[in-house]
Specification:
Its EC number is 1.4.1.13. By secondary structure, the chain is of the alpha/beta class. It folds into 2 domains: 62-162 and 320-384, FAD/NAD(P)-binding domain (3-Layer(bba) Sandwich), CATH 3.50.50.60; 167-316, 3-Layer(bba) Sandwich (FAD/NAD(P)-binding domain), CATH 3.50.50.60. Helix content is 29%, strand content 20%. It is built from 12 helices and 18 strands. The protein has helices at 13-16, 41-55, 77-88, 105-108, 117-129, 146-152, 181-190, 216-227, 248-256, 323-327, 358-361, 366-384; strands spanning 69-73, 92-96, 133-135, 155-158, 164-165, 178-180, 208-212, 232-236, 260-262, 265-272, 276-289, 295-299, 305-308, 311-314, 318-319, 333-334, 338-339, 353-355. It has a 5-stranded parallel β-sheet with strand order 3-2-1-4-18, with helices on both faces. Strand 1 (69-73), helix 3 (77-88) and strand 2 form a beta-alpha-beta unit. Helix 3 (77-88) runs parallel beside helix 12 and helix 7 packs across helix 8. It is globular, with a radius of gyration of 22 Å. It starts with 12 loop residues before the first helix and ends with a helix. Bound molecules: flavin-adenine dinucleotide (FAD). Flavin-adenine dinucleotide binds next to helix 3, helix 8, helix 10, helix 11 and helix 12.
């Protein structure tokens, strides 16, 4: 997978990396549009990827076959990158993917209007043209274990992502009409539920939809709900807009499209017979900063109110997928952060097993997952060559 190939979303150098510290403007004027503007890295990446796509993919020369075999678990940006890099170095690589389509979050999570699927498909095609085999509909940890793979392959890379949604754990959360953002987005992006009954998976979008959370996933879910015909969509977030983890650009787009923001508000109960009908919330104020450095939300006693809703989408975070971690002996893991790696090259506690991407960091970014894949490929290649 080529760096910069898929991160269309507009991350700016200023707000998402530490690199801005090395950037020295000619003068330091926030109003200056000439030399003091942050660099829109995401847009530059998108431009390069689109340009390359338009000109046709160039398959680089591959090293002669080494006779070594590598299994990659997961076909998100981490898995696709490690697979492509190892194939270029002459190794025989097979990717195992649970879903019926490769691409990870790029196909099942990020909506078409932010990342056109033809870009992801072209990336997958490029990886295949390098000789990588992709086996879909295989759940590693169920169909086969990592130990099974180690019997057939010289090394295994785990790039299983962070697809396990977190929930609020409040009364009424099991009512019909309440989805995790993951399920909601998978139904729309992967299963094409918007085209039901032409496609098998249905989706019922409410008239008044509340999306709980303030990250990019929440913005994506809210904007999808609006596109599928919801009349009113609310982002409900327990801190203020300033603390929202979503990129400013995503917040602005959501607002432009008419999504309403209910900040300093926390749901405490969902009410309904079978389907959710109302949501009881409490107002919050900001207290002292917590361990994340953001000011802690504190409930305001007696400020409870209810609002009518007929659909709720919970987008308060995802944790690493637990299946491979649970079924692989000798893998040191942390329940919250995922697989523990010894260094930036992705070495795990288990011999010949490497890991990278969201499964080692928790939900992060496409570019970070691709970086992890690149570094792991370098380490795996060296080990396979006995270096
Ligand atoms: C809605 C949404 C919007 C986002 N927007 C952005 C954005 O704008 N910019 C950005 O940089 N990042 C964004 N992210 C985050 C980014 O997509 C992830 O950080 C990135 O995809 C992580 O890559 P990965 O390869 O580690 O995992 P994933 O992309 O999650 O891929 C993991 C793959 O492993 C497969 N898998 C899991 N378990 C198994 C198993 N047991 N056996 C076989 N296969 C398995 C999964 O099906 C999946 O295909 C977003 C995430 C979401 C959910």
């Amino acid at each position: 997978m080529r760096p910069g190939g898929v991160t269309s979303p507009g991350t700016t150098l200023e707000n998402k990396t530490g690199a801005w510290r090395n950037f020295r403007p000619v003068h330091d004027n926030m109003k200056c549009k000439r030399c003091c503007e942050p660099v829109a890295i995401g847009r530059l990446e998108r431009f390069v990827a689109d340009w390359e796509l338009e000109k046709g993919l160039r398959i680089p020369e591959k090293a002669p076959p080494t006779g070594k075999r590598v299994a990659v678990v997961g076909s998100g940006p981490a898995g696709l990158t490690v697979a492509a890099e190892l194939a270029k170095r002459g190794h025989d690589v097979t990717i195992f993917e649970t879903l019926h389509k490769p691409g990870g979050v790029l196909v099942y999570g990020i909506p078409e209007f932010r990342l056109p699927k033809r870009i992801v498909e072209a990336e997958v095609e490029y990886v295949k043209q390098l000789g990588v085999k992709i086996v879909t509909d295989v759940v590693i940890g169920k169909t086969l274990t990592v130990d099974d793979l180690l019997e057939e392959y010289d090394a295994v890379f785990l790039g299983t992502g962070a697809g396990l949604p977190s929930f609020l754990g409040i009364p009424g959360e099991n009512l019909s009409g309440i989805y995790s953002a993951n399920e909601f987005l998978i139904r729309i992006n992967l299963m094409k539920a918007y085209a039901f009954p032409e496609y098998d998976t249905p989706i019922k979008v409410g008239k008044r939809v509340a999306v709980i959370g303030g990250g990019n996933v929440a913005m994506d879910a809210a904007r999808c709900a609006l596109r599928l015909g919801a009349e009113e969509v609310y982002i409900v977030y327990r801190r203020s807009e300033e603390e929202m983890p979503a990129r400013q650009e995503e917040i602005e787009r959501a607002k432009e499209e008419g999504i309403k923001f209910l900040t300093l508000t926390q749901p405490i109960r969902f009410i309904g017979e079978e389907r959710v009908e109302q949501m009881e919330c409490i107002r919050m104020r900001l207290g002292e900063p917590d361990e994340s450095g953001r000011r802690r939300p504190v409930p305001i006693e007696g400020s409870n109110f209810t609002m009518p809703v007929d659909q709720v989408i919970i987008a308060i975070g995802q944790k690493p997928n637990p299946l491979v971690m649970r079924t692989t002996k000798g893998l040191v893991v942390d329940k919250r952060r995922g697989i523990i790696i010894a260094d930036s090259y992705g070495r795990t506690s288990k011999d010949r097993v490497f890991a990278g991407g969201d499964v080692t960091t928790g939900a992060a970014t496409v570019i970070a997952a691709m970086g992890a894949g690149k570094r792991a490929a370098e380490a795996i290649d060296r080990i396979l060559r006995g270096d």
